[in-house]
């Protein structure tokens, strides 16, 4: 059972920055794709960003392109989400997800970390 633990959320003013971390207990972290999703109250969960296991390919939702950056440190079994120029509409619970080797889906999820952006 893979455990993902997010951290780094909190309250920040619009225009500010936060960096989220996702620590994985997986023994095969280096061959797993990682992603971040978010869910605001009363809204559907939405994709934010993903990074391929190699670290060479990333994907972002249009709403965060140019502001957010996903990265990973395989030596630390950790994925990151650097969030800059934060907006109130970025307020949500942010979830880390992992895709096991050849799983074809995001099959492991963290507990979430709250990000609140004030005006």
Task: Write up what this structure looks like.
This protein has 119 residues and is mainly beta. 0% of the residues lie in helices and 50% in strands. The strands form two sheets. Strands 2, 4, 5, 6, 9, 10 and 11 form a seven-stranded mixed β-sheet that branches. A four-stranded antiparallel β-sheet has the order 1-3-8-7, with no helix packed on it. Strand 4 and strand 5 (46-51) form a beta hairpin. The mean pLDDT is 96.
Task: Give a short overview.
The chain has 119 residues and is mainly beta. The protein has no helices and eleven strands.
Keywords:
single chain, 119 residues, mainly beta, seven-stranded mixed beta sheet, four-stranded antiparallel beta sheet, 11 strands, 50% strand, globular
Mean pLDDT: 96
| Gap from first CA to last CA | 40 Å
- Total number of beta strands: 11
Q: Beta-strand level of the residues, as a percent range?
A: over 45%
Structure annotation, total helices: 0
Class per helix and strand makeup: mainly beta
| SSE pattern | EEEEEEEEEEE
| Portion of residues within helices | under 10%
Q: If you compute it from the alpha carbons, what radius of gyration comes out, rounded to the nearest whole angstrom?
A: 13 Å
Describe the main β-sheet briefly.
7 strands, mixed
Uncertain residue ranges: none
**Which shape, going by the Cα principal axes?**
globular
């Amino acid at each position: 059972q893979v455990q993902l633990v997010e951290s780094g959320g909190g309250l920040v003013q619009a225009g500010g920055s936060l960096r989220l971390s996702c620590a994985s207990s997986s023994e095969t972290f280096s061959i797993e794709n990682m992603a971040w999703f978010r869910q605001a109250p009363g809204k559907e969960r939405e994709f934010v960003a993903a990074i391929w296991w190699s670290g060479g390919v990333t994907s972002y939702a249009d709403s965060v392109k140019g502001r957010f950056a996903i990265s990973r440190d395989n030596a630390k079994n950790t994925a990151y989400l650097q969030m800059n120029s934060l907006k109130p509409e970025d307020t949500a619970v942010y979830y880390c997800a992992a895709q096991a080797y050849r799983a074809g889906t995001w099959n492991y999820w963290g507990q979430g970390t709250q990000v609140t952006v004030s005006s």
